[in-house]
């Protein structure tokens, strides 16, 4: 797959990229026909720039020669079937995993060249919302949000209190500050974790499956919140998800990943108009298609024969 430079990405967004028609292999599709305006901030260098990324787990190829940009000020969604490597991508961006090949730059810094101390410093500028929320169960909502501030700043108690209350206000949980995590609903727990993720005013926030396990009301609140926080706080957001409709509703730009490669990218309207069978299977939730139901392995007959022989 040819590598792109930012001009190619902009070109794809503007709809003049090559359009893959009914591909039978996962090729990248940059599609056209969108009317959504491109934020002016996208003109500057991307906040995250990934080039030629390859990553394996044993013999399993997770990414192969992947190029991807996260534009400043935008909500970028990375979507794809379960097990396709979305969480792995977030771990690579935050330097928790090291690529086998390729480069990952965050805010102009090559994370492979950073030592541990530099990585920790960079990670403080990135808020992460985990699938599990990772709230500290022995601490109240207030103290969970205060935790990173106590760890990483010298704020006075009164200033710290103000910051925590403002973060809780932003997610609608100021009134629940004394509640313990075990007494929170799933949606409230996710919002408390979000308040903690923004406690240190990160430049970027990474959401790992933020809508999983949420009822429709909580999901609606989260969708609105992700967009509002991004725009009001001047954040850059990466949303990793397989919830197609919800994610597309707030994203400025989408990447669809399958089998280690980007199979489509563009604005939600551009990706929705894409007609390759790989993209359609994912976007329309089709059980049959190029992504197979069965995990790769020997045929059933072979396996049964082997078992019989054992
Ligand atoms: N620690 C690990 N050791 C070995 N393989 C792993 C490990 N973590 C993840 N994998 C494998 O890497 C692949 C990508 O996993 P990852 O969790 O990134 O996928 P995902 O797209 O986030 O999935 P989901 O949508 O289900 O959360 C999967 O096949 C998974 O089994």
Rg calc = 21 Å
What does the overall shape look like?
globular
Order of helices and strands: HEEEEHEEHEHHHEHEHEEHHH
Which regions are unreliable across 5 or more consecutive residues at pLDDT < 50? 1-37
Q: How far do the termini sit from each other? A: 44 Å
Q: What structural category characterises the helix and strand content? A: alpha/beta
The bound ligands are:
adenosine-5'-triphosphate
Q: What do the pLDDT scores average to? A: 82
The CATH topology of one domain is Rossmann fold
Protein name: ATP-binding cassette domain-containing protein
InterPro entries: AAA+_ATPase, ABC_transporter-like_ATP-bd, ABC_transporter-like_CS, P-loop_NTPase
Keywords: ATP-binding, Nucleotide-binding, Transport
GO molecular function: ATP binding; ATP hydrolysis activity
Description:
With 310 residues, the protein is an alpha/beta fold. It has a domain at 6-19 and 28-125 and 202-288: P-loop containing nucleotide triphosphate hydrolases (Rossmann fold), CATH 3.40.50. Helices cover 35% and strands 20% of the residues. Strands 1-11-10-4-9-8-7 form a seven-stranded mixed beta sheet, sandwiched between helices. α5 packs across α6 and α7 packs parallel to α8. The protein is globular, with a radius of gyration of 21 Å. Mean pLDDT is 82; it is low at 1-37. Residues 20-33 have a biased composition (Low complexity). Residues 1-17 have a biased composition (Basic and acidic residues).
């Amino acid at each position: 797959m040819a590598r792109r430079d930012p001009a190619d990405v902009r070109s794809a967004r503007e709809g003049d990229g090559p359009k893959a028609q009914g591909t039978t292999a996962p090729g990248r599709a940059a599609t056209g026909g969108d009317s959504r305006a491109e934020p002016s901030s996208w003109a500057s260098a991307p906040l995250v720039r990934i080039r030629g990324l390859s990553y394996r787990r044993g013999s399993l190829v997770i990414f192969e020669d992947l190029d991807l940009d996260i534009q400043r000020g935008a909500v970028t969604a990375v979507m794809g079937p379960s097990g396709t490597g979305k969480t792995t991508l977030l771990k690579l961006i935050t330097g928790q995993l090291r690529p086998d090949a390729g480069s990952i730059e965050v805010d102009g810094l090559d994370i492979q060249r950073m030592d541990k101390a530099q990585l920790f410093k960079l990670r403080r500028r990135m808020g992460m919302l985990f699938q599990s929320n990772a709230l500290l169960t022995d601490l109240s909502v207030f103290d969970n949000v205060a935790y990173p501030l106590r760890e990483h700043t010298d704020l006075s108690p009164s200033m710290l209190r103000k910051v925590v209350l403002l973060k809780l206000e932003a997610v609608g949980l100021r009134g629940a500050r004394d509640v313990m995590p075990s007494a929170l609903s799933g949606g409230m727990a996710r919002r408390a974790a979000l308040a903690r993720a923004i406690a240190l005013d990160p430049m970027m926030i990474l959401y790992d499956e933020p809508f999983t396990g949420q009822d429709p009301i909580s999901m609606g609140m989260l969708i609105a919140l992700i967009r509002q926080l991004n725009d009001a706080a001047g954040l850059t957001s990466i949303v990793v998800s397989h919830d197609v409709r919800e994610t597309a509703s707030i994203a400025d730009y989408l990447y669809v990943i399958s089998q280690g490669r980007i199979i489509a990218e563009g604005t939600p309207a551009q990706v929705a108009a894409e007609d390759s069978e790989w993209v359609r299977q994912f976007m329309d939730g089709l059980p049959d298609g190029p992504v197979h139901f069965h995990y790769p392995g020997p045929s059933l007959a072979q396996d049964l024969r082997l078992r019989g022989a054992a």
